[in-house]
From TrEMBL:
One MF annotation (Gene Ontology) recorded for this entry: S-adenosylmethionine-dependent methyltransferase activity
Residue stretches making up the Methyltransferase type domain: 71-177
Species name: Euplotes crassus
Protein name: Methyltransferase type 11 domain-containing protein
InterPro entries xrefs: Methyltransf_11, SAM-dependent_MTases_sf
Any one Pfam family match given in the protein's UniProt record, by short name: Methyltransf_11
Superkingdom per UniProt: Eukaryota
Length: 269
C-alpha cells in the first residue's frame, strides 16, 4: 500500500468508528495518555505536539488540569470523523466557556506557523489549543518547534513507524521529550484479537488489514529502542506497563473475562 492510499484508508476507517470509539473504547485508553503526560513532564512544556488525539478525552483532561499557563497545545489526527468528535467534545465541555482557554481549528494547506500561532495575543487566554488534520508520518510543522511530543496508541497504525519516529525527532527542539505508547506483548493483549472481531461483526473496520504487520509488532523493546536511537534520540527508555481497563470496555459487547495489554514508552531527555 502506498503512502496516500494508507492515509486515505486510515482517515476513512478511523473516521467511521469515531463515535463508537468515543463511547466505548476511549475511556479505556485514557490511562495510556495520562501515563505519557506524567512521564514526559508535559506539565512544564511550553509547546506541546500531540498526534492522533482521537475524540480528545485525554486532551481535554490535559488542557483543563495539566497544561501550564502560557503554553500552546497542538492536537492533530488524520481522521475527519475523529476531528469532528474532538471539536464537539471540546465545545460541549466546560473548557468552551472558560475564557482562559482558547480553541482554534487550523487549516493545514500549508505549513502551520507554530511560533506565530503560539505567540498570538489572545486577550485573557492563557492556554491555547490548536487543532488540525495531520498525518503522523508527515507533520505540517517546521523543525525544532516543540519541547514535548506525545503519541498514544498510534505508532503501530501508521504506514511506516520509522517515518513517525523521525518526524517526532524533527519537530522537537534539542532537549525535547517524546512519549509514545504502543500495544504490548501479544500474549498479554487479547484485546487486539477479541475486540476487533466483535467490532467487525457489528459492521465496522478496526483490525489491521492483512497486508499490515500484526498490531503488536512494536512490542519488541530491543528492536524499537534501536529504531529510536537510529532516528537520533539520545536517550531511549522503554518498558511494559500493566493492563488497560479492558474489562469495562468489553461489557457492551457481552464478552466477559480479563483482557490485558501492556505498552512501551519512549522518550528523549
Ligand atoms: C487507537 S486511536 C488512539 C486515539 C487516542 N490517542 C487515544 O489514546 O484514545 C488511534 C488514532 O490514530 C489516528 N490515526 C491513525 N493513523 C494515523 C496517522 N497516520 N496519522 C495521524 N493519526 C492517525 C486514528 O484516526 C485514531 O484517532
Amino acid at each position: 500500500m502506498d503512502h496516500q492510499e494508507h492515509f486515505n484508508r486510515n482517515d476513512k476507517a478511523w473516521g467511521s468508528i469515531a463515535e463508537k470509539y468515543e463511547s466505548v473504547l476511549e475511556n479505556t485508553t485514557i490511562q495510556s495518555s495520562v501515563t505519557l503526560y506524567s512521564l514526559t513532564n508535559a506539565k512544564d512544556a511550553e509547546r506541546i505536539c500531540e498526534v492522533a488525539v482521537g475524540p480528545g478525552q485525554a486532551s481535554r483532561m490535559f488542557v483543563s488540569s495539566i497544561m501550564k499557563k502560557g503554553a500552546s497545545y497542538f492536537a492533530s489526527d488524520i481522521a475527519d470523523g475523529m476531528n469532528e468528535r474532538f471539536t464537539k467534545g471540546f465545545q460541549d465541555s466546560d473548557l468552551a466557556s472558560n475564557p482562559k482557554v482558547g480553541y482554534e481549528w487550523v487549516e493545514t494547506e500549508e505549513e502551520v506557523d507554530v511560533a506565530g500561532q503560539a505567540g498570538k495575543e489572545l486577550r485573557g487566554v492563557d492556554r491555547k489549543v490548536f487543532h488540525l488534520k495531520a498525518n503522523n508520518e508527515k507533520l505540517p510543522y517546521a523543525s525544532e518547534v516543540f519541547d514535548c511530543y506525545l503519541a498514544s496508541l498510534s505508532l503501530n497504525l501508521v504506514n511506516n513507524h520509522k517515518n513517525q519516529i523521525s518526524e517526532s525527532y524533527r519537530v522537537l527542539q534539542k532537549g525535547g521529550v517524546a512519549g509514545f505508547t504502543v500495544l504490548g506483548r501479544q500474549e498479554k493483549c487479547n484485546y487486539i484479537t477479541i475486540i476487533p472481531e466483535v467490532i467487525e461483526s457489528l459492521g465496522h473496520i478496526l483490525s489491521a488489514p492483512k497486508d499490515r504487520p500484526h498490531p503488536t509488532y512494536l512490542a519488541d523493546r530491543k528492536k524499537i529502542e534501536k529504531d529510536f536511537k537510529e532516528a537520533g534520540f539520545s536517550s531511549v527508555k522503554s518498558y511494559y506497563t500493566n493492563k488497560l481497563n479492558f474489562e469495562r470496555c468489553v461489557r457492551p459487547f457481552q464478552i466477559y473475562g480479563c483482557c490485558t495489554c501492556d505498552r512501551g514508552i519512549l522518550w528523549r531527555p
